[in-house]
Design goal:
heterodimer; A: alpha/beta; five-stranded mixed β-sheet; 15 helices; 33 strands; B: alpha/beta; globular; DUF58 domain-containing protein (chain B)
Chain lengths: ~700, ~325
């Protein structure tokens, strides 16, 4: 029998109290009035040596209750039942976390990392548990705890060695914070699975270059386990690194024909002069770049002409070349087509078409061609490539209405700007019965009163600095009957609750209805800054929610409708399942080709720019992020003692012997109360003092 | 200071005196069966006078007359030759204005006086003693006044000798006291400020206050030329602490309770009580006062001795010119 909190046994000394009270003669209840107490001092309770036999059971009960309570508070546990096997001595559980991100490609870094990892494996005893995890942008088990345990102890180290030697650095970014959380989770899960032995020393051994671009932000809201230690074993590369990065073109760029490249230099760099040159263009002159250590410079590189050449820009003069090549998909995008079905002339500023032809001119990096279809002429929607948007501003034939519905179902967007009267074409396109549209009564002007900013149409203007729609006034709008389109979503409403923008999903595509147009007679929508993003969102089509921006290794590559295959930079080809929206196996930087119905497309995938920030982070940053770093040898003894205490607490927590003891104490106190009551009734009240 | 018998006085109460000396006096237990205070006083005085006419105080009775013994310096013109012929002693005729002793009976009516174990309280005993003295002095044509006090003077009757005065005084003494805490300093200082003419002050109290607290007021009374007799009234239980069995002892004045086991506390109590009594005695002796400690089981008449003795001493001064209205006095 051992005790978790033995100091509480001192509470057993309270047993002396009932013994003393039993020796004290009962205080009389009699009261004696007296003239003055100035000559009297209080008498201490007199201890009698006469022990009355009938109080022995009561005394024993009271003493027993106190002793049992003291024992319960001392939290007893039976050590022999624990019977920890000798193998627990010196046992530990280790998760070996190896950085395989792109920055580990520098110099001899990888070989150093492998050597350190093998040291950890060699230090494992036969009772130790080990898991090996590799991580870059995500972590993946190389050798799990379960597999380690299932292996023959003699084979474990060899298996771990071979797996580690088979590893190679990838092109991925470094998400160290998430990797540490995953490793901690692997250890914690094992602890949950085997509670009996969960209290062995646990640690994560991290082999990494600990670069500044390691992304520790995931640790911010992670509660690091108190008994889990992080043993960071950084590896360092000689020399410094410089990196190049594409910058997005700005709208007010004075030279839209040139690409902007930012070149950054490490703070501890010894080099300052670099140059940029196209890899597959030997004739072009290199562009010199001067970047002092710790600074960055933006240079302009002439945009190459379309073609297979000039897809890679190399930074020369850098010690570490893993991030020195920037890839560019020089293919201009396929021009998008917008069909306008309506009577308006392109040069009539009172019509819709006048503004439609100009709103897409401002769309960056996008060639949009607006084609007019007069009412009465056949619609003739091309199947390959289909138009990006069909604007319906007039009634058409029933056949054209059916082709509009078909176009929408294949994934197209139909924008209907309704006019007063019978909306037969719109109803046919929406596959609902025909209905009448009436002009709403507008006093003065109307504003939008309710906008669903979570909808893709308005998502780009949902930020507080952009979401002021009060300046857009409508002089006229049309009112549709309630539920005219069947199951549809009202995306925006006027102040009085009438629908302003309605969206109805049709197959893969959609039908969007504007209750008011952008003609000057209808209102000021065309003159508003919100008009361009609204029309661009319509052009993007449904389901085009992926973020526009540079494509990075490991990130998704959006695939055009009907894509069948992806050609990787290494020459291999990956077949794509029909309906796949994005290709997620871009494991290396380079130019990826996509076979699509509209012709082959090319996408440039580059390294994550953060991966180029290779300056060492310092182990302290891990501690600041909340990790508990491994302690020095000086506190090893304290640690062992703490471990022993933890094991004791574990045993006691499982046995919980205090519970029956508390119940026993309660039972004893109940018996004591009953017995004291009986004795109290039986004992005559002692007479008070009598006067002489 | 000595008693009339010449025996040195000790702080021990005279209850401890030999019964031979007390045999002629009325037993207090018997006396207190008389309900009327006035009758009680009368019985006590009569018993006292009877006892006086017997030994050991024979000859003393002569002093209860309108005569006093001649002393050197008295005018020989006022010698009573008939009395000389009868008693072979020189006596001087006294006149009415000389006989007027002014006496204040100062009675403690505080809560601690409400204690008693003999069927009557110390307060009742003290008021009876005061009534006895008043009755006796009225017989001697002296002016008697009363001041009853608790923490202040609650009843006051200035000294007079006129018809009905004794009845008023008895009526005041017969009233039940309110019973508050004892405070000697305030009432005695109040009295010293009130009483302008010098006289005899008989203080009846248990003096159960810190000894040093009584020194100041008594000294101030002394400084005004008053004669003071302190009659300390105590219950036998207070003197001997004859209790058995532990009890919660509750203070009559403060209400404070103490758990006291008498067997354990007796020695310490008696020691502190004796030390306090000795201190009070030393203060009174130092100031030239008489202090008599009386337990409530001792005869009331003993109180009269000290008053009588003091009266004699006060009236033993040089005689004054007899007033034309002086009355000759017969012997009692």
């Amino acid at each position: 029998m051992s005790f978790l909190t033995p100091f509480f046994i001192l509470g057993g000394l309270a047993v002396a109290a009932p013994i003393l009270f039993h020796l004290i003669r009962r205080t009389t209840r009699s009261e004696m009035p007296f003239s003055s107490l100035i000559f009297l001092a209080p008498s201490p309770p007199r201890v009698t040596r006469r022990s009355r036999l009938e109080h022995w059971p009561l005394l024993l009960l009271r003493a027993a209750a106190l002793a049992i309570l003291a024992a319960a508070f001392a939290r007893p546990f039976l050590r022999q039942t624990a019977a920890q096997d000798l193998g627990d001595v010196g046992r530990s559980r280790t998760a070996l976390l190896i950085d395989v991100s792109a920055s580990m490609r520098r110099g001899t870094l990888w070989s150093k990392a492998v050597a350190k990892a093998l040291e950890v494996v060699a230090g494992c005893g036969p009772q130790d548990e080990l898991a090996v995890l590799a991580f870059d942008a995500s972590s993946r088990p190389v050798l799990g705890f379960a597999e380690w345990a299932s292996l023959d102890p003699a084979q474990r180290q060899a298996a771990a060695r071979s797996r580690i030697e088979a590893l190679a650095p990838s092109w991925g970014a470094t998400r160290l914070g998430q990797a540490l959380i995953d490793a901690a989770g692997a250890i914690e899960d094992l602890g949950d699975a085997a509670r009996a032995s969960a209290r062995v020393p646990r640690r994560i051994v991290l082999v990494s270059d600990l670069q500044q671009g390691s992304r520790l932000d995931a640790l911010g809201d992670f509660d690091w386990p108190s008994d889990l230690e992080l043993d960071a074993r950084p590896v360092a590369a000689e020399g410094s690194n410089a990196a190049a990065e594409w910058l997005a073109p700005s709208d007010d760029d004075a030279r839209p024909d040139a690409l902007r490249v930012r070149v950054s230099n490490d703070p501890n760099s010894k080099r300052e002069s670099f140059s940029l040159s196209w890899v597959d263009d030997k004739e072009a002159r290199p562009i010199p770049v001067y970047v002092p250590p710790g600074e960055s410079r933006v240079v302009r590189v002439p945009r190459p002409t379309a073609g297979p050449a000039r897809t890679a820009l190399r930074l020369e003069g850098d010690a570490h070349s893993f991030d020195d090549v920037l890839y560019l998909a020089a293919d201009p995008e396929q021009p998008a087509t917008v069909l306008f079905v309506g009577p308006d002339e392109p040069d009539d500023p009172e019509g819709l078409l006048y503004y439609l032809g100009r709103v897409f001119d401002a769309a960056p990096g996008r060639a949009v061609k607006v084609e007019r279809r007069a009412p009465g002429s056949p619609l003739a929607i091309a199947a390959d490539p289909p138009p990006a948007l069909v604007v319906l501003a007039a009634e058409t034939s029933p056949g054209d209405a059916a082709s509009l519905a078909e176009f929408a179902k294949r994934g197209g967007t139909v924008l209907a700007v309704v006019a007063a009267g019978r909306a037969a074409t719109l109803a046919a396109a929406a596959e609902v019965p025909a209905f009448d549209v009436v002009d709403a009564e507008v006093r003065g002007d109307a504003m939008l009163g309710e906008i669903a900013f979570d909808h893709p149409l308005f998502a780009s203007v949902s930020a507080p600095q952009f979401n002021d729609f009060t300046k857009i006034r409508f002089r006229r709008y049309r009112r549709l009957p309630a539920d005219a389109l069947g199951e549809a979503r009202v995306v925006a409403r006027f102040e009085n609750g009438d629908p302003a923008v309605i969206e109805k999903r049709l197959g893969k595509g959609r039908l969007v209805v504007f209750a008011s147009g952008w003609k000057p007679a209808d209102g000021w929508l065309a003159r508003s800054s919100k008009f361009v993003p609204l029309m661009s969102a319509l052009l993007d089509g449904p389901g085009s929610g992926e973020a526009a921006g540079p494509l990075l290794v490991g990130g998704p590559i959006p695939l055009p409708e009907g894509a069948v295959a992806v050609h990787k930079p290494d020459g291999s080809t990956v077949r794509v399942e029909p309906g796949t929206a994005a290709f997620r196996a871009a494991e290396a930087p380079g130019v990826y080709g996509v076979d699509a119905p509209g012709g082959p497309r090319r996408f440039a995938v580059n390294l994550d720019p953060l991966e180029s920030r290779t300056a060492p982070l310092g182990v302290e940053a891990l501690e600041q992020a909340g990790c508990r770093l491994v302690r020095s040898e000086a506190s090893a003894e304290v640690e062992r003692e703490a471990t022993r205490q933890l094991q004791n607490a574990e045993l006691e927590g499982r046995q919980k012997l205090w519970r029956p003891l508390i119940l026993l104490a309660i039972a004893v106190l109940i018996v004591e109360t009953w017995l004291a009551g009986r004795l109290g009734r039986a004992r005559p009240i002692q007479a008070g003092a009598s006067a002489p | 200071m000595t008693t009339p018998t010449g025996r040195p006085r000790s702080p021990e109460p005279d209850a401890r005196a030999p019964s031979s000396r007390r045999g002629s006096f009325v037993d207090p237990q018997t006396l207190f069966r008389i309900k009327s205070l006035q009758l009680r006083a009368k019985a006590a005085v009569e018993g006292f006078i009877k006892g006086i006419h017997r030994s050991p105080y024979h000859g003393f009775s002569v002093e209860f007359s309108e005569y006093r013994q001649y002393s050197v310096g008295d005018d020989p013109r006022y010698l009573d030759w008939r009395l000389y012929a009868r008693s072979d002693r020189y006596y001087v005729k006294r006149f009415e204005d000389e006989t007027n002793l002014r006496c204040h009976l100062v009675v403690d009516s505080s809560r601690s006086m409400g204690y008693g174990t003999l069927g009557f309280t110390k307060g009742e005993y003290a008021r009876t003693a005061a009534a006895t003295i008043a009755y006796f002095l009225t017989l001697q044509r002296d002016a008697v006044g009363l001041a009853a006090f608790e923490d202040r003077i609650v009843e006051y009757l200035p000294p007079r000798h006129r018809p009905g005065h004794l009845r008023r005084l008895m009526g005041m003494l017969d009233r039940e006291p309110q019973g508050k805490a004892t405070d000697l300093v305030g009432p005695l200082d109040e009295l010293a400020a009130t009483v302008k003419k010098r006289g005899l002050i008989v203080l009846l109290s248990d003096l159960l206050v810190p000894a040093e607290a009584i020194r100041g007021p008594l000294a101030r009374l002394r400084a005004r030329g008053h004669e003071v007799i302190a009659l300390r009234v105590l219950d036998p239980a207070e003197v001997g602490f004859t209790f058995a069995g532990p009890s919660q002892f509750r203070d009559a004045e403060s209400g404070r309770a103490l758990y006291v086991d008498p067997d354990a506390a007796r020695a310490g109590y008696l020691e502190r009580f004796a030390a306090h009594a000795a201190e009070v005695q030393q203060i009174c002796t130092g100031l030239g006062f008489a202090l008599r400690t009386m337990t409530t089981d001792s005869p009331l008449e003993l109180a009269l001795f000290d008053v009588l003795k003091s009266r004699m001493m006060r009236l033993a001064g040089p005689s004054r010119r007899p007033s034309p209205g002086g009355r000759g006095g017969g012997r009692p």
